[in-house]
C-alpha cells in the first residue's frame, strides 16, 4: 500500500483547505462530466467528493476506469467548492479533494443490488450478500448505536460497583421451556453439552459465591421457532444482585435506563416509571406488555348482560365468562366492508368473532344493537361513559383471559390502523405480580410463567398447596412502548422452597437432582437472598434505532427459518467428524 490514510472521508472541513491529504474507501458513485471526472468516496465515517482533472493526464485516464465499490486511496489537496456546487445535504459538502495520486486496491463486480438506503431489496438477497448490505449507511449507524449501547452498559454497571463475569457456553442440558442446542462431546462419547438459554443458574451460583453485584453482556441460544424479534442466538444484558428486594432491582434499572437514553439519544426520562400489576394490565389493555402511548382501554360489561335474552351473551355469562368492549370514536365511520374485514382478521388471530354496535346521535344502531334491551342500552351508555359518536367493538368468551387477549390484539391493531400512536414518545413502565404458574393443556401440568427459580410473594405462600394457580410471583417486566425489553424476579434461595416449586411443576426428585442438583446443593451453603433482571439487548437496540427487525441490528443474523444465507449454515459435516463424535445420521 503506497498511500497511507491521513484522514477519514467524513472528518474533513473547511479548516483543512489547502492541505494535502490521503483518504481511502469505496467509490460510492462516479460522474463523468466530459472534461472533469468526479467520484464520491465513502467509508463508515462519511463521504467526500474527489475531482480528477484532465490536466493530470495519466491520472485522469486511470480515474475514468473507476466504478462503484472499487476500493481506492487518493492523495490530493483539499479545496473549497464553488458556491453553486456546494452540497448542503453532506457534512463535507463545502469542500472537495483535487486528486494528485490514485491507488486502486481492488476492483469490484457490479453489486447484485444498489447499496443505497432508499433502495428496496428483498431480505434474502441482503442476507446472502451481507458484506455488501453492511456497507449501507443505515445499517452501519445501527451497528454503531449497538456498540455505543454496549459501552454505555459497561460504563454504567461498572460505575455502580457491578463486576462483569463471564459464564460458560458449554453447559448442562436442562430443557424447561425452549429446546436446547446440543453439542456432542468427542472426549466423552454419548454425552452432550448444551448451549445456555440464559446464564440463570450460573448467576445464582455467583450470588452464593459472594459476588453480590454481577452483570454480563452475554450470548444465549434457544432452538425455537423464529419471528421478527427472535433469533436462535441472541444477546442479553444480564444483571444479578444480592441482599435485594424488587424495589432495589427496579431502582437500579430505572437509573440505567435514564442514563442510557440520555447518553445514547439525548432523551430525558422521568423516573420512577409507572407500575401496573399483571391483572390490572390485562383488565385495562388485554396484555401484560401494553403500549401505553395511547388510550383505548378495555371495559368489561359482563354484569350488564346477566339477564340478557341474546343467546351468545347468555351462554357466556352462564359459564362465568367475560364480555368486554373497546369504544373507538375514530372508527365510527367504518363501512360494512371494513367491519367484515376486521372480524375476519380477529378470527384469524383465534377469536370466535367480533361484534359491534354503532353509537350515534345518542342511540345505538347496526350490528348487535337489535339484541339490546332498553335497560341494557341505558346501562351500556352509563358504564362506557358514551357522550360522543363512536363504534363499540365487543368480544365475548367463556375464557376471560382469552377474550381480553383478543381485545388487546384488536386495540393494538386499531391503534396502528387509525394512527392513534404518537411517534416520538417514550413510555416505560413495569408490569408486576405475575402468576407464578400457568397451566399447559398440551402437557397437562403447571409450567413456570417465567422460570422455575422465581420466588413466591410471601402473602401467597398459604395458597401454594391448595390453589397454586392463584400464587403470584415476585417477578417484574420492563415495558417500553408496548415491547417487553427486560424481565426479572427475586429468586428462590432456599433448597426446600426450590424443591417445592419443582414438585408443583411435576418434576420428580430424581429429575430435579439430575438437572439442578448443583444449584440446590449450593443453596445449603449459605445462599443469600438475591434477584436480578435480563434485558433483550438486540430488541432494545432495535427499538432505540427504530429498526423494523432485530436482524437489522445484528451483524450476521439468521433468516426466519434459522438459516445463514451468506455462509450457508446449517451445513452437513463429513463422515470423519461424525465418527469422532460417535454419531450417525439417520435417514427419515
Polypeptide structure, described:
The chain has 588 residues and is of the alpha+beta class. The chain has 15 helices and 22 strands. An eight-stranded mixed beta sheet has the order 6-9-10-22-21-20-17-11, sandwiched between helices. A five-stranded mixed barrel has the order 1-2-3-5-4. The protein is globular. 32% of the residues are buried. The model has no long low-confidence stretch (mean pLDDT 94).
Brief description of this entry?
The chain is of the alpha+beta class and 588 residues long.
Give the helix/strand layout:
Layout: E1 20-32, E2 37-43, E3 46-52, H1 58-63, E4 71-80, E5 95-106, H2 123-128, H3 130-133, H4 137-159, E6 163-164, E7 181-184, E8 192-195, H5 200-208, E9 213-221, E10 233-242, H6 246-265, E11 275-277, H7 278-285, E12 299-300, H8 311-318, E13 322-328, H9 336-348, E14 355-360, E15 363-365, H10 374-384, E16 390-397, H11 400-417, E17 428-432, E18 437-440, E19 445-448, E20 475-480, E21 483-490, H12 495-504, H13 509-523, E22 530-536, H14 537-545, H15 575-580
Parallel strand pairs: 3-5, 6-9, 11-17
Antiparallel strand pairs: 1-2, 1-4, 2-3, 4-5, 7-8, 9-10, 10-22, 12-13, 13-16, 14-15, 14-16, 17-20, 18-19, 20-21, 21-22
Helix pairs in contact: 4-6, 4-14, 5-13, 12-13
